[in-house]
Queue: 4 jobs
Job 1
Amino acid sequence: MQPIHGCPDYCIWDFNGTILDDVEVGIRSVNHLLAERGLKQIGSREEYRQIFRFPVQEYYRYLGFDFETEPYEVIAPLWVEQYLKNVAEAVLFEDVQETICRLREKGIRQVVLSATEQNMLMNQLASLGITDAFEEVLGLDNIHAVSKLELARKWRKDHPDASAIYLGDTDHDCEAARSMNIPCVLITRGHQAPNRLKHLGVPMYDTLSDFVKTQFYLQ
């Protein structure tokens, strides 16, 4: 991935687990489905952060869902239904607004790139009151959360000469950043634990505030 030698033109944000603290909502939603099927539920936030993965189908398979008897395409909308019932309880991480403002002050354009379905993503951003912070909002055209690599590659094709940095919380975010050949920074309080990310060889921070303090172009 290309290093940043000056102020980047863009900051590409992941949404779930980077902007929105929805880990507990995700656990509650999948536990509802697990309980209905008599499967073992996730017992804690840290247990979840050790097992959550992309593609999401593999995460569901690990939890014990049987796609032979109940296809993922059936399970996914049931999870979304539960998630939408609970997501009003999720909040922005406390330093998101501050980070958005700092990036804006430095003239860095901001983009959301997410594996969330587009309309669902737009509604969530609107309910949080931060839609106007982003020049582009890029979500999937379905609820299956398979991958955002195609979105990432399209963004790079549309912005071939732009310098950018990617903020995320999972190994899939790192994969997306690499597909765009831009630096990735992982904030380790989201959907995957630090021990699952350290092998990726990218900068990791506990919080966005810690990230901002270390970036010369944000001082």
Job 2
Amino acid sequence: MPPTETTPSAKGSAPAVSAGVASETVVSMYQAQKKIYARAVSGWFAGWRWALVWATQLVFYGLPWLEWNSRQAVLFDLGARRFYIFGLVLYPQDFIYLTGLLIVAAYSLFLFTAVAGRLWCGYACPQTVYTEIFMWVERKLEGDRAQRMRLDASPWGANKLARKGGKQLVWIAIGLWTGFTFVGYFTPIRDLAVAASTLGFGPWEWFWICFYGFATYGNAGWMREQVCKYMCPYARFQSAMFDKDTLIITYDAERGEPRGPRGKKADPKAAKLGHCVDCNLCVQVCPTGIDIRKGLQYECIGCAACIDVCNGVMERMDYPQGLIRYDTQNGMAQHLNRSQLLRRALRPRVLVYASVLVLILGALGTSLALRSPFKVDVVRDRGALARLVEDGWVENVYRLQLMNTTERVQRYRIRAGGLDGLRTDLGDTVIAVDPAQARWVPVAARVAPEVAAAAGRGSHPIEFTVERLVDTPADAPKSLVEHSTFVVPR
């Protein structure tokens, strides 16, 4: 038997061992990850990224505190099954609007990705936004890249403990405040704030504040690029939405290679060098730790930090900016100018996405504008489908749910039809429903014996007409017709 051989293995992997067959190896399925120390960067795209951080967080943290008609402007009251969005009052029956909103979000993502790659990931994704916030805290308390590396390599002491501990406390505070705000969309946030003063939250409020806070703290503070690289499915299927005319972050190898260091006054042509000075700053600022000079990689989230830092280096070297830039594969190969790139952006798939998106938005807007100010559900009494009452009349009992979708008191009148002589026990009774409330109204519908005999045994279609009574000339009269059945017993 040949002797067992041990071959060198890659760092972070188990030793490769072969027994009997010299080429047989054991490969570890786990690869150790090196911590990424992203360097701070400033520039045009960094400014846009921070503008979106401010915009998204002002909306997220600020919306629950806004008032509208003496109530919280945006509140999803799951207990009462009411969803308040400024002037809109939605019921579970309005689920179609949530479906439409999700379709709009999906087509928007397809459109933006087809035009300019991972814009959502690089600028507005919550993972990116909170990672930027947490990294800003980290830089303020521990310093920039080189200082953080030295701090991590140094032995533990009072200074290191204070900086590390302070960072963790701020991170935890941001996470808990984020969880508190999230719950504030489902429980009135002012009531939640009062409960917070005594830690008097309910069990579900405790769970969701801690869960959402821990998720924010863990994802933005610790996992960071691991979420984008391994947990987010978008990184995996984004290439299906790319084509050769999609704007992506690209390195101009034709201009940059061969790369190499040189002085500012050196002539790159004489030195037979490209414009890339091989400073490695594009790698140091990348939040996922990739080298964009190796080409587009699925880990790239399109944040454009490498563009900002490279443009700064080019400016200091008196070279033209744009060694790393937004460009397309066709643009790089054919040396297209900006106007040519923009013209090619209006290609069929982009026009299709945009057209479908406009149609869906138009349909949603029209539906909301024409939305009825009330809704009606008819439920039969299952306990007694039909019964005989005085003088041989046949009676069926129903319950009508009247849902007021406005924030004013509304008044209604209910009538029944579909069978000759069908009448209800309500008569001309006017029913009032409070603002944004629902009311169950029991209704007994009856027909005379001769009508029942003429109709025959079994179920017969009938309809309930609910008429909205107007109080002012500005209100438009509205009626809803709901269908049901009337049962004549054997």
Job 3
Amino acid sequence: MKLLHINHDKTRLLIFFLGFYTDENCFLEFDNQTSDILFVYDYSNTDFSELSYFDFTPYVEINLIAYSYGVFAANIAHSYLPFEINKSTAISGTIYPIDENYGIKPKVYDLMLGAFSEDVINNFKSKMELNSNGLIKEAKRSLENLYMELKNIKNYVLENEIKKTFDFDTVILTKKDRIIPYSAQNEYWINHKNKVVLDVGHFPFFEFKNFDEILEL
């Protein structure tokens, strides 16, 4: 896990758990600087204890967004966030990263891991970018790092029982998703009270001007 703190000298903080492949470069254009941001990404290890040492005391309001595999990560990591979250939103994901019903199917995941290469990553990016507004910005992460992220997530799933430990206020489902199927998202969140369905692919952020619009849903 890695942390990156973007300081705008605000008393609001957005904790943003990113998905596989991504880093802050994919999202900075949606930062309208109304909050400081703590990006959490790179799940090549799932030790989130470093969050315990971050200084949250300057903030009077703390919000949380979790995207794709960041939903899985936030569900694990929230025990290291010993305070109340004001508003939380899950986007294009569930707490199950690899699952027959609620995530990427194990066979598909294993094929991606077994054939891992730059071509696999390029294919992954093409499946994310189903939006007429253009491509997301490139993440600056090495191929080796991305492979270790996939491998570690699989090891975590094999070695741990995944249970829901955090309740998101809002969930955003992506109907044209080619990464985590809409059917899996919908099945997992079927009974959620505040569910928003967008007719877009896995990267729905171009539907919003900034992070505040997401949190206002």
Job 4
Amino acid sequence: MSAVLTKPDIRRPGDIDVAWLTAVLQGAGVDAVVSGFEAKNVGTGQIGESVRFRLRYEREGEGAPASIVGKFPSPDETSRGTGIMLGNYLREVRFYQQLAPRAQVRTPRCWFTDTDETGGAFVLMMEDLAPAEQGDQLKGVSLDQARLVVEQAARLHGSFWGDEGLDELSWVQGSKAAPPSAVTPELVSGLWQGFRARYANRLQPHWIEVGEALTSRWQDFHAREPGPRTLAHHDFRPDNMMFGTPAGGHPVTVLDWQSFTYAPGATDVAYFLAGALPPDVRRAHEAELLALYHAELTRLGVTGYSMDDLRRDYGVGAFQLFLTAFFASMVVIQTPRGDDMFMQMLGSAADHILDHDALKALA
């Protein structure tokens, strides 16, 4: 067979055929013709659906991949509605179209991506990173993996440190051009109270203390003057990363660019370390990991940002992890693994917040 070269359109996984896959590859500069494929869902995404396409070829040109991974809107109505309301789908497409080429962080190669004007329909075809394996929030990471991730965080943040051009992009959260956030104080408070009621028998008293303090003072905390801003991932956790294995793969690759914002980069560092390391390991190695992050920022040319500045921004960074845990749990499809994951995130964030006496920032 032969396929006519056309620009791919936006499709759901079940509508993808060999001609469409051929157009994706040829549009990316690979002289190949796909003759067949197998599709299988992969990953544990709450907002999107990911599918691996294993390819067979009539003509396998140089650089033709054995497989590619596609990302699509969630088939679940609640999760899909959340992705549209929060601009997640549109934001990720724009990241790969406009920002990924500048980012020094390791991201998957993008074969093709597009979205409609509403951000409600999109497709993202990416490099298959296997035999690297997806991280697991519930299992956490090793200390060596944490060091790799901290370096990647610095490379992301160093790429866009103080980049005021981000303020001109309406699809970047936290920018001057962004529309008013759908995350209002009333929404935050309502979701927290719903979370408290749903998970009452699983919540520890100090978790509730943090939640009540954060949600009752959300407006003031959200409006506080931030530290130096950069492009922050804002959902920087193992589930959104791929790690190399003995069989191969890049040491670490960062995925899921749906939530990035123009904000202090140390938020990502706190979000990751609080959630991905056991509290005792984090406490024992926190100073070392922050020094590694700061040294990498400095190597990349960031100046005027002291270790004291970093410790200040890092101390309050876990509030974002706490917020994500209860907020996301109430606006995406509920699953047993999701429940366990959100509990782990919330508890780890509360421990970090109290360790750093960060409730003072809400006063």
